[in-house]
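Input.
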Amino acid sequence: MAMCFDSGASPQVHFGELPTVEGPEKVPCGWGFGWYPEGERAASVVKDPICRGDSGLVRMLQDWSAFRSTIFLSFALGAADRRSQQDTHPFQLRHAGRDWLLSHNGKLRDFQVKLALQTYEPVGSTDSEHILCWLGDRLREAGASRLSDLGWPKLHELFQQINELGTANLVFTDGLDLVFYHDKNSHHQVLWTRRLPTERPAHLRAGLIRLDLDDAVEHQRTAVLFSTLPPSEEEWLKMEPGQMLVARRGALIWNSLPEQQHTSAPIRPVKAAEPARTRLVQVLHETTYTYEVPVERSSHLFRLTPVCDRNQEVLEHSLELSVDGGRRQYEDVFGNFTTSLEVDRPFREMRVVSKSLVRIHSVALEMPNQRTSIPLVWMPWQRQMMSPYLLPVELPENQLLALSDFAMAAVERCDFQLVDTLLDLNQQIKRDFEYAPQSTTLATTPFELLCNRKGVCQDFANLLICLARLLAIPARYRVGYIRTGADYSNQVQS
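Output.
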């Protein structure tokens, strides 16, 4: 089993009783567990080649403060020629200043000849550790210090080359990315899921392994999970033969198969091609207000005219109002073209239709004269001017830390790139949060929204603003409807 969380997690792990493997040439070789303590490049690996279930070593992990990571590899009920520490999964290799872990389910033929080693040598005698050393040589040849440097198509080709020698389900990680490859002949099924922190039970069972996420903090984690044994209670997807998936910080970032084959589990899309330099956009805004009791007298302000600036040009614009009244047009202090309407006769319905034709000039999100990676550095006078847009909402420290963990998962998923991080957060809110009218109120906080994963557009906007500010990115609410009236609870904003 392999796990990739969006932020550091400490799952409680329990192993069931390991069954006996029949046959004179193989014996059960217990279990192994590998993970990367938070913020470290070095991996921790704990193995017990003779254990047949929960033991003192397993229980020790539950109370160990270093047993916390975003990536975990576990292996149970392996089979080898002998019970030994050196031949028990997962296997570990040190290359380019970091530890690399690999587990392999399958058996290869002639691997010592077909996969000749150069620099790295195995400690044990398994084909699995030999694969890791051979991959280490390929990384060294390519000058890659992390998996993404090698390139996912290239890594997929290497796994296919290994698979030609026999059966191979492979899980490989550098502590940043988790890669799972499924055997081309579907040797043992591989199942996967992206688990959101919803109302589902905090207990998860997959084969011989049971995970407990009872802690309130752990229960808020999003995780991509892989297993070669059937999980219980939750619906998982089957990997296709020869398929390779890459997970980072609780999300899939690469798939060797077309994305549409796994529409039930979202995968971060590849960046779209650069749009045309100039585009014509037609904008239609239509709103209808209806009232049970006629409105006798009312005042209205409409700011529906697109801005004309160096990035866009308004070619046509019209504003239709179904109710007549005294109109006045002016430009407000923010440069918005505003229409004021005073109505002094009763009406039950008002229909507002705004039509615009706008020419948009393409502008790169990443400007050459601006810093486009996180963290952003502000001069004192800049921070002073932007302080209203940098302060997050007032919440308890533990809630702000949970929101910060959620934001930083996107930062690390996007290699600290500013624009990619903001797009990732925006896509994640759209993908993982449910639009549910009347599920929230004006008092709903970003933390409550993060826990419940449902709300309306205003909640999603406020959450994104809060996450951006926690990353020292200035953000504010741009547009929305404000209900006015003496009996309305939000009188200050009105």
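Residues 280 and 359 are 5 Å apart (CA to CA).
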